[in-house]
Amino acid sequence: MLPTDDLKKISFTRSIRDGDLVIVYERHDVMKAVKVCESSTFQNRFGMFKHSDWIGKPFGSKVLSNKGGFVYLLAPTPELWTLVLSHRTQILYIADISFVIMFLEIVPGCLILESGTGSGSLTTSLARAVAPTGHVYTFDFHEQRAASAREDFEKTGLTSLVTVGVRDVQGQGFPEEFVGLADSVFLDLPQPWLAIPSAERMLKQDGVLCSFSPCIEQVQRSAETLRSKFTDIRTFEVLLRTYEVREGKTESSQVEGGGSVELPPCKKRVRSKEANDTNGDSSTVMVRPCSEARGHTGYLTFARLRCLVVYVERLLKDKPT
């Protein structure tokens, strides 16, 4: 769970307690969420770890197994939770999530409406962004999926910041109780244009809406609907390219005239000291794009609710004399 202090504020500085959720980190692509229980153990390829040895240690600690292997115990931040949560639907990842929070102008104290909840990846980050005084109301039409998301938010300690509802927002719209109260609205729906009229009624003046769609045809249909009541309509595709940085070996070869030419980087080989001195091999840092890069995830369409004063002025301006 997102660790909290006695005042129920999110805190990553306190020690691990019995019942906490921790991320057991082996390496960047091998992590697991584990609930701490004093009488339990955790086993992996490095050996057996006693949960009782974890209690009282600060998040980020390195702990040893009975075989001398080790793992790190990390706080379940939204970034890490996104990497380890159960996928009930396709989720949003960090690149899209950070973009959404920035362009929706989400700050502590905001009231956010979301549909649909899915696996809750974005919802977790939204909750941290609005903490400690804001709230996220998220809706999913699938009852079992909503129940599973609610259980996850209990595990991660977000029940005071997130409320999960079962509702077909495409057909029913958002609940009337939120009319004019939402700072931002996020839609992840197959037909978002059906929910846009309701979202427009929920938003405060100058509020911002975001719709996530995997297909450009959905974007076009949504943009047509947004044009009547929204302004500053923009669509983005966020593509992330990561790089590997590692130490490698380069070999220098003598050329005519006494100079040398550097050969392409190669794997390290075991050489004698004399051989290294003779051939002039040197160590260098090599950087290259990762062989596996995440491609297209979806399109993010943002729009700002047209200010009522500006809207009325424009109507008066266009009115025939």
Quick summary:
The chain is of the alpha/beta class. The protein is built from 9 helices and 17 strands. It has 3 domains: 21-76, Vcp-like ATPase, Chain A, domain 2 (Roll); 81-239 and 296-318, Vaccinia Virus protein VP39 (Rossmann fold, 3-Layer(aba) Sandwich), CATH 3.40.50.150; 248-289, no CATH class.
Describe it for me?
This is tRNA (adenine(58)-N(1))-methyltransferase. Its EC number is 2.1.1.220. Belongs to the class I-like SAM-binding methyltransferase superfamily. TRM61 family. Keywords: Methyltransferase, Nucleus, S-adenosyl-L-methionine, Transferase, tRNA processing. By secondary structure, this protein is of the alpha/beta class. The protein has three domains: 21-76, Vcp-like ATPase, Chain A, domain 2 (Roll), CATH 3.10.330; 81-239 and 296-318, Rossmann fold (3-Layer(aba) Sandwich), CATH 3.40.50.150; 248-289, no CATH class. Helix content is 25%, strand content 31%. The chain has nine helices and 17 strands. Strands 9-8-7-10-11-17-12 form a seven-stranded mixed β-sheet, sandwiched between helices. α1 (78-84) runs antiparallel to α3. The radius of gyration is 26 Å and the shape is globular. The model is unreliable at 266-272 and 274-278 (pLDDT under 50).
